[in-house]
Amino acid sequence: MDDPRTNSQRLEGNTLAILDFSGIREARDIHDDRLSFLEAVRAVSLASISPSPPTWKMFDAILQILRDGLSLELAVASFQLLTDLDKRYPRVYVRESDNLGTNSGGAGELVVNKEAWSPFTVRSGNSHFEASGICRDSKSLLDSVSFSFLVEEIAVGRHSAIKTVQNMLLFQYLVRALEADFLPRHTVYKETLNWVFLRESLLSQLVASRKMNYKSLVHNCMSVVSTRFFHEAKICHTDLKDQESISGDLPQSCNVGLPFAFPEIQRKACDAVQKILILIMELDVIRKEAEKLGLTSRSDSFRATILDTILDELTYNKDQLSPFLEVFEDPKWKLEIILLYFGKYYSRPSTRTRRSNSSPNDETFQGILNCFSNPTTTGGILRKMASEVACLLLAQAFKCYLSLQRDQKNAAFVTEKIGGSTLPEICNSLVTAFKNLRKLDHDLELTSFEKQALTTAAALASMKS
Amino acid sequence: MSDPLDFEAEDLLLNFPPAPTKRKKVTDLDDLLGDYYSKQREIDSIAHKKSKSSKRYSSDDEDDKNEKGNETKLSEIADECEKQINQIFAENEIALWGLKIFGQQKSLPSFGFIELENCKLLQPFRENQLDSDLLSDSGQGAGETFLEGLLMNGWLSQLALISGFVEASIASWTFYQVLYSSNVELQLSACDFWCNILSKNEAVQPSIVLEWIPSYRELKDALDVYGYLSDTSQNAALNSISSSQVPGSEGPPVNISSWIKLLSACFQIRKFHSIFSVSEAEEVLIVIIRLFLSRQLQGISFILTDCMQSILSFFTEDEWAVSCEKVAHDIAYSVPKDLNSLRIVECISGTSNRSKHFRGRMAIYMLGILFEKEVFDGMGILKSLGSVKLKDKDTDFFTLYIYLVLSENWILSDDLGDERSDILSMWTKFLRNCSGNISSTDWRLYASKVRSKASYLLQSTISER
């Protein structure tokens, strides 16, 4: 019996030998070899009765295939393999404490597997990459620069269909990796209030990196979200039919599935973009909390919160407001954005100074609706905000409210952000608000989304009363 | 006897055809291939002795002749090599995996929506006492276009979830949109609507009352309309279809992704609405596995994988014990034993015990057919495998490759019971034969693939012990 280390080295050499291209004749051979390599890793690390994790070099090779594989088949297979491997061998997870009986809080313990491979190389003083003493110079790994470059490529979308698909799959995988690293830390933080856990998260290191242009990352993410439909039309009609965009050395059948895969993968990628925005928002919340508790230090470099960045973007680029809110799905954060947006234009007369930081955002949806409850106050708001924008925001906020109020889990959040009103009350207020807006602006044309909001509100009000 | 001199070794090299795609893999296999090389060395030394003895008796004249003879011999060999190479390149076109799973699409079935005009959900929309001028231009009131808008913007799900009830007309109408609408956004929204609603009913208590639920019949009819071919025998070669393909007429519509997702959702709600009987579930499982063979769907294989997972978990333990064998048997009989059969085995990629087991059963059923043995006769199958002649002139290495991969999958995911050690030792012996007895200079199709695959498997089998 050998020791496991030699064993895994032998496994590594043996598996990587499949990828050895020396003397290879054609693109198809390379393609076949890559597929056999992926299949071999799957067999050893997942399908086997006694599976063992791939080594770092093997992981690097899989990621490399995802980054520059020649075909849709390779892209999908490597993506799927990486995803499955991450599920099987998590880098970070919460271990439930053993003494369940004594501790009713059930605080789990955060387990970080420092030996585990990661698709990122993030430079950081006490990062475990350096601590492990293993040189990570594989060019397939991503740092903050290549990550933001990837987002930019997706946002601009000037590549061939197959390259775009690869980029979107890669991005989706990376966001999953960031999320899988973040969520357990987040859970444990909630119990222990130990900021270090989150400071050391991949996400935090990634966005804190000085090399990354954080603003342009957010900008690109937002433009992916708000141009989803336009993008789709552009690619489908030109690229998918364009045979030259597909690697000429391979049989056409290797990429014949693009028209089916494209809309699916694009939807998933758009979800991933929203996911990363939300993750950064969650990180910001904790960071603020940690700042209040005095847990942060100078090593946590300063960065504007993502909500502020998004709001700036939406304020200066008004055309983006409607498409962004239409696609951005998370009701909780969408409501937050809308309330903050209103807050920018309308603040109730109060004695609060600008500096007071205690409750920067105490607007509620009901509070906003109340402002539209009579023509006078409505007119006050319309002096600062166009009636079209007001309608859009109200309709979107109403939809967020509907999604949120169903779930008991959100009860606290709903009370805090909506106010104590019941469903019919909210519905009626919305109808009144729209009527008042109409009274002040006779030319107001409602979009179909707003009409649907209005009729839904009317229907619900009569249904529940 | 002293070693042959350097220049003599060079001479000898000339007599071999140029070394082809020799892979570096062998460097790792010294211990394993030791015996192979020692044999080779014996042969070599005999050859050297011969060449020496022939030289010993040659005079200068004869030397000249010999040289000339060698030259002509060399050019002959070179010609021969070239011929072989050309032949190999011609033969090299082993068809990629892929079957024609979809033929011509059929015309859409007529679908009478159940009184969509009078549905209760839209009642309040008609009766609402809204300011008519707010909604002035929505002339059609509560027609189908209006409903489409509600669906696409997510209001319909909100209404259904809040009221906890979906009436028959709405349910069947949205279902029809999923299966047949050519408006991609509408179709995707309808799919989201259904998946959303069905997922709410996975819990202990169904939270939504569905007045109408889809039946197996509807899903099957849709497949029919998409042009699904349930019989593989009439299959044309893949390459010929892809070239003559007219977009839109051949192959499934894009709705197929939604069809798969919907199916997957339907399988997760066994508790409340049993949409499928066990035999229907088996049938659907076969369909899903066959869809993996469609090149057009290769980019959405992750949706297929998810769907297969939810079908697998639909069965109870007892049902699965029977159904697994049945499905594996049926598939094994219907699929051609070429790269398609390998694709089938590899697509069962889940990491659950059921998938692993299923994968192994699928492989052994295929082996059973290939060797005309019963599937419980593992030893018999391995014996047949061991009796394949490796040194024959007409050894079919492609078929051997299929045997090899199928056996690998069977042995990897089956605990093999009492016969385990016997089977493993026979397997190792077979692998040793393949990696040792197939010459690295064998240029025949798939010979090198068999050889390197066997070396790889041998290596990993040994390191596993």
Automatic annotation (TrEMBL), chain A:
Cited InterPro entries: SNI1
GO CC terms: nucleus; Smc5-Smc6 complex
Domain of life of the native organism: Eukaryota
GO BP terms: DNA damage response; negative regulation of DNA-templated transcription; negative regulation of systemic acquired resistance
A GO term for molecular function: transcription cis-regulatory region binding
Protein name per the record: Negative regulator of systemic acquired resistance SNI1
Species per Swiss-Prot/TrEMBL record: Dendrobium nobile (Orchid)
UniProtKB/TrEMBL annotation, chain B:
Start and end residues of each stretch annotated as Disordered: 47-73
Domain of life assignment: Eukaryota
Protein name in the entry: Uncharacterized protein
Organism whose genome encodes this protein: Dendrobium nobile
Taxonomic classification: Eukaryota, Viridiplantae, Streptophyta, Embryophyta, Tracheophyta
